[in-house]
Amino acid sequence: MKPAYIVVDTAIHDHEAYEAYKAKVVPIVQSYGGEYLIRGGDMIIDQEELWTPTRMVLIKFPSVERAQSFLDSEEYAPVKAVRLGASKATAVIVEGF
Fold first, then answer.
1. 79 sits in which H/E element
2. pTM: predicted TM-score of the whole model, two decimal places
3. Which residues does residue 22 pair with via DSSP β-bridges, in sequence order?
4. pLDDT 10s digits, 38-63
5. Which of left, alpha, beta for 43 (phi over 0: left; psi -120 to 50: alpha)?
6. What is the sign of the dihedral through the CA atoms of 66, 70, 45 and 43?
7. Which domains does the chain have, with CATH numbers?
8. Which long-range contacts link 14-19 to residues 24+ away (Cβ below 8 Å)?
9. pLDDT, mean over the chain
């Protein structure tokens, strides 16, 4: 089984609400076998022809199915609503190796 990665670029406009989101999402991610590899931090942007990244998050999951299960889960739905209200983002699931 190949691992999968959720890659998210986030622009936060309500930092207080987003901090509440971060506190609630970690245990849910972990319950689906997810592990945060990147959560914000400094970036060196070498090329930005397609998009200009803002704040990157990278989460590793055991499989595409586990990553998708996390995103679709009942546990995550109300927490995701907080994120959607506090930020704008682009999120993708990428199969890895």
1. helix 76-86
2. 0.94
3. none
4. 999 999 999 999 999 999 999 999 99
5. beta
6. negative
7. 4-42+54-95 (3.30.70.100)
8. 14/85, 14/86, 14/87, 15/86, 17/82, 17/85, 17/86, 18/82, 18/83, 18/86, 18/87
9. 97
